[in-house]
Write a structure and sequence with these properties.
This protein is an all-beta fold and 121 residues long. It has one domain: Rieske [2Fe-2S] iron-sulphur domain (Rieske Iron-sulfur Protein). The protein is 0% helix and 52% strand. It has no helices and ten strands. The protein has strands at residues 2-7, 16-21, 24-30, 36-40, 54-63, 66-77, 84-86, 92-93, 103-109, 112-116.
Length: 121
């Protein structure tokens, strides 16, 4: 099953647009490279609405006391507890925690962004 979530031109980088497919809450977003991605709109930690969070980057450390800000526009942060997930790596968490954001198929057809649930989703 697939559903229209928004028009393609409505979806800016670092922005999330929520919707639903077959009563499953989803959000669509654009990565820093402009790719359109779709994920479940619930944090695997405690069920927060991820589309109310923020897409940004994340501080990374290569050595003690050395930090850099990386992955700008590719990290979604949970609004409740700040858990971070990489949008370009299929919703993989940045911290070593259990669970990632479930990703769905997103595509553009006739200027609309669709999200499709696969069988067994």
């Amino acid at each position: 099953m697939a559903a229209v979530i928004c028009r393609e031109e409505e979806l800016e980088k670092q922005e999330m647009i929520p919707g639903s497919v077959d009563n499953i809450p989803v959000f669509v977003c654009r990565t820093s490279e402009g790719e359109i991605r779709a994920f479940i709109d619930r944090c695997p930690h405690q069920g927060a609405c991820m589309s109310k969070g923020k897409i940004d980057g994340a501080p990374m450390s290569t050595a003690p006391g050395e930090y850099s800000f990386e992955h700008e526009g590719d990290i979604v942060r949970c609004p409740w507890h700040g858990r971070e997930y990489n949008l370009r790596e299929s919703g993989k968490p940045l911290a070593p925690v259990k669970g990632k954001l479930k990703e769905f198929s997103a595509y553009v057809k006739d200027s609309y962004v669709y999200v499709e649930l696969k069988r067994g989703s």
